[in-house]
Specification:
single chain, 3-stranded mixed beta sheet, 6 helices, 134 residues, mainly alpha, 3 strands
């Protein structure tokens, strides 16, 4: 787990969670009952901070309590996934700006998204979050 950002790993640990890389067919999953974030071993050689933060978003929003809603419709699932993405982006903006000692006006959405491999369909929210940061 040497590739995982140490601030992010500390957050995972402070929340009482374990982070485990396993052979799964998806990028990651938060298993609330066992307080574990499982990530695909395919992410071991990549920057997996966005996926970790995304799963933390599910944990923070207690999405496990909404599992029936999550599986009810694609619209419901997409809403909860977007909520987790928003939390992930906010966590990573905080880490990135503090790690590199950046002021709000120094935040660059494109560099940020490329570094963390954030999907481009989230660019609008990244820019909005950067504008509202601090």
């Amino acid at each position: 787990m040497s590739g995982v950002n140490h601030h992010l790993l500390k957050l995972v640990n402070n929340m009482g969670l374990d982070l485990v890389f396993v052979d799964i067919d998806r990028s990651g999953i938060y298993y609330a009952r066992e307080k574990i974030i499982f990530l695909s071993t395919k992410l071991l050689d990549e920057n997996s901070d966005f996926e970790i933060s995304h799963e933390l978003g599910h944990c923070i929003k207690k999405h496990e309590e909404l599992s029936a809603y999550y599986y009810a419709t694609n619209s419901a699932r997409n809403k909860l996934e977007f909520e987790a993405n928003k939390i992930a982006i906010e966590i990573l903006i905080f880490i990135w700006s503090n790690e590199y000692d950046l002021d709000k006006d120094q935040l660059n959405a494109v560099k940020f998204m490329e570094y963390y491999k954030i999907p481009w369909n989230l660019e609008g929210y990244v820019r909005e979050s950067m504008q509202n940061y601090g």
